[in-house]
Every structure is written in structure tokens, then in C-alpha cells.
Amino acid sequence: MLLEATLSGVQRRSVAGIKAGKREWLRVLRPVPRAHGQALSEVIEELFAHSYDHLGALGSQWHFLSLANRRGTFCSKLIAVGFEKVGRPLFSDLDPSVITPGMLARSSEFSDVTGACVAELDAAHEAGLQVIAIDARREPRIEIELLRRIFRMIKAGVSYKTLPTNIASTPEVLGWLSVQDAKDSRMRKADETIANVLRYGGYVAFYKGISRKLLADARLLNSAVTTVPPDVSAPELLADLRSQLPSASAALNAKRDARQKFIALHKRTQFETFFVLAQLYLLMEEASLARVTSLNLLISTLAEPHQKPF
After folding, report:
1. Which pTM was predicted?
2. 31 - beta bridge partners?
């Protein structure tokens, strides 16, 4: 399902890579009327910077999981909140957190323009699919701003005679520090500054916050296990949960690899910065493990007895 969230409608380049085996699997909805389009676009663009709430999306459709009414956002909730903020609620008697994608088509705020748009998409040259490359690892805006702020603090604290002028980001600072000699007093002083900036400048606090959210999600999933009705048949829910496992497992492996890398760097250099990062990534690894474990538990509870959890 595509929603025309810009004044010019759905643009071909913005849907690069979309594939559908059947025409009925595609739907394009256009807001009606469009007089509030600019305000709506601005609201939705602001909301889009927030991280995706997988559990909230599940809770909107599977109410027995009791996962709705969370602070995170997901596709249909984002749209519903956007319309609500410009004074045009999609369903006046429903909270945005319980509005599913399928419900959007029933709202009088949209008209279905799938026929014309799909015809245009079909007519597009294959090269159009390659105009935009979507990076799945793209960081949320708030994280990017944090890294920029941390870098400015490091740059202000480390002598300009020590930090090379071609270093332009926080990751580059860490890469540069990893190859420096701890016997050099200038480098030890730079390390102390960088470690303190990470500890007290918001870097550690930000990622601890993410870890706390993952742990809270894991607890919600664990509690959802006890609320599953014994006769529930939820193949779509199972498919959704299983689809989250690869990314959750990849995140866990990435945190584990990063922690081991920082442990090795600290052992080799004795720089405090890498000790701070190793400790932080241990917390993040534990939180990621809790999420993977809880996902597997809920999957095994919902699965048929003869099915494997994953």
C-alpha cells in the first residue's frame, strides 16, 4: 500500500524496488481533500524520524497481545497521527495506535487511485528501479545529530595539534584513536577527553536508552505469551514474528562483534575510550539477546505442536 504523502503524489523514484506478484497486492491511496496536504506532509515527515515500533504494529492487529497504545510509531499509526494533528482524524472513535493498514482504505479521507498509478508504474522503464538505492542501515535522524554533537565536543576538547584536520566524524575519531600509541602522552590525554565526552556528553546515555527500550519490548513479548488464547490461530502473526527474527539476530551478532572488537582494542591500547565502549556494547548485546529470546518464546507458543519455533 502506497500513500501519496507529497503534493505531487507518488513519485516513481520513491517506490524503487517494490515488487508484487499480483496486481491486487498493490494499492495507492490519495488524501481527499488535498488542501491540508502541506501541513500533513510536514507532520508526517517529523514523525517519520522516530524508530519503527514492531510491537506496536503487532498490537494494533492482535489486541490480545496488549501491545497497543505505546509511544513508538509504525506505518498506519504514523498516517493516523498525522491526520489527527491537522484536525482530520481518520476514525474519530479510534486511537491511532489501533488503526491497521487495512483500515486506511475504509477512511473517507482517501480515494483509491490504484488503477491509474499501477498502470504508470508498469509502464516505467526498468532503469527507474535503480534511481534510488535504499540503505537499510540508515541511522535515524536523532542518532545522526547525536554523533555530530559528540564529534563537535571531541573536536573542542582535543588539541587541534593532536587531532588530524581530515577527521570529520565520531566513527573516524574512534578509528584514528585505535591506531595511536598509548605511550604518547598527547594520545593518553586525547583518550581521556574522548572517553569523558562519550560518558557524559550523551553518547552512553542515548544507547543505554535504546537498550532499556529493547528490554521493555522483551518483557512485553514475554507477558504476551501468557495472554495468548489457547485456541488462537494466527498464521499471519506467526509470519510477522518470524520475519523479525533475522534482523533481530543480525543486530545481536553486530553488538556481540562490536563488543569483542572494543575488548581487543582496549587490551592492546589500554585506552579508556574502548573500555567505555566495550561496557556499553555489553549492555546492548544483553538487550538484543533478550529480544531474540522473547521473540522465539512467543513464536514457539503460537506455533503448532509439530512446528519448530523458527
Report:
1. 0.57
2. 110
